[in-house]
Amino acid sequence: MNNNISSPYNLEYTGTINPKPDDIDYQPYLPSEELKKSVDLAIKLERPLLLMGEPGSGKTQLAKAIAYEFTVKYQNLLKSLKLDSYPYEAWYVKSTSRARDGLYIYDAIARLRDAQLAGVNQLDEEGRKRLNDSEQKGYIKFGALGKAFQNSLRTIVLIDEIDKADIDFPNDLLLELDEKRFFIEETQKWVPDRNPQKKAPSPIIIITSNNEKDLPDAFLRRCIFYYLEFPDKDKLIDIVKAHFRKKLPEFLTEELLEKMVDSFLNVRPYTDSSGKKVSTSELIDWVAALVEYYKTPEQIREQLKPGELPFLGLLLKTRDAQIRYKGQRRETTQ
Predict the structure, then answer these.
(1) Which residue in 175, 170, 178, 173 sits closest to 202, CA to CA?
(2) 3-class secondary-structure state, position 36
(3) Per-residue burial over 132-160, b = 16 or more CB atoms within 10 Å of its CB, e = otherwise
(4) 142-154 pLDDT, tens digit each
(5) Whole-angstrom Cα distance, residue 14 to residue 319?
């Protein structure tokens, strides 16, 4: 293991440091004890943490929550490195993504253009320096992992929705994840170079998947796996409180908030056959709409009738799901 940075700073995620109410760049995150242990294992064992769970269950937000806590906890370390915040890089995978994109992208077209201009003596001095640079830095844009492998600090890297990419995508990263370095074909150089003294500190890698396709066994063997279960009723209430913090109206009592969450949970079974279950992010949107449009507890209670919930389009995203849900009313009145 590489311990370049771990001493005297023993990186540890506690999940207890959340942003203040006036911090609009970060949202609070409430991890379970098991999830905190999994993050701690990923840090100590230098293994990627693979998170699976329903869309909207909080997988993507974990990496940013870790970065926020580390920014607060390790101020002395960051100041010594002249950093304002703990290093965090995000790679949002698409169906067209290639594994190399997370390492670097080489702009071959720009280099060809410069070479053509140089051939007719129309390339300026800056362009000539770029063209003659043996490392070709002017044509290389580093991705999330590429930047992390060059940092002096254990960078937090989010690889989001890895299952969107081609089936071979995860396996194409195995060497780089093991070696903590990568090879640039266009320059025939390793980054960082193969000097053991220059090996990068292991990034803290959080990978998310919606389980839309199976991931290769060789890739899974290198990961710590954690499945994010959908929160229970009490946890959902805590999530709503943490998200809105001081923005909830005073009349919204614990009892009324509980009724709202009950109504939300009653909607979830009607989304099973559509394949898209209602998530915590949609609960937050729905609560925001209720307190925006209804200004008294009586008005809100009046809306919480089975089969008649308002703003149904925030929760159920297909016509069939809404029809099934509204069928409750007919069944209860017969």
Answers:
(1) 178
(2) helix
(3) eeeebebbbebbbbbbbbebebbbbbbbb
(4) 999 999 999 989 9
(5) 42
pLDDT over threshold 70, residue 47: yes
CA 17 to chain centre: 18
CATH number of 33-103+143-228: 3.40.50.300
Phi, psi of 14 (to 5 degrees): -105, -20
> What whole-number distance in Å separates Cα of residue 269 and Cα of residue 267?
6
Read out DSSP for 230-288? PP-HHHHHHHHHHHHGGGS-TT--HHHHHHHHHHHHHHGGGGGGGT----HHHHHHHHH
Residues 73, 9: Cα–Cα separation, whole Å: 10
Q: How far apart are CA 316 and CA 274, in angstroms?
A: 10
Would you call 59 helix, strand, or coil by DSSP?
helix
What does the CA dihedral 44, 157, 20, 41 come to, rounded to 10 degrees?
-20
Cis preceding-peptide flag for 192 (omega within 30 of 0):
yes
d(CA 129, CA 9): 41
Say what the pTM is: 0.86
Question: DSSP character for 150?
Answer: T
How many residues would you count in the chain? 334
Q: What is the pLDDT of residues 183-216, one digit of tens each?
A: 999 999 999 887 766 677 899 999 999 888 899 9
CA 204 to chain centre: 13
Per the omega criterion (within 30 degrees of 0), is the bond before 8 cis? yes
- Alpha carbons 262 and 35: distance in angstroms, whole number: 25
How is the chain split into domains, by residue range? 33-103+143-228, 233-333
Half-sphere exposure (Cβ direction) of 272: Cα atoms closer than 13 Å? 4
Q: Chain centroid to CA 301: how far?
A: 35
**254-267 helix and 280-293 helix, angle to the nearest 10 degrees:** 130
> Helix, strand, coil shares of the chain as percentages rounded to 5?
50, 10, 40
Q: How many CB atoms lie within 10 A of CB 306?
A: 14
The amino acid at 187: T
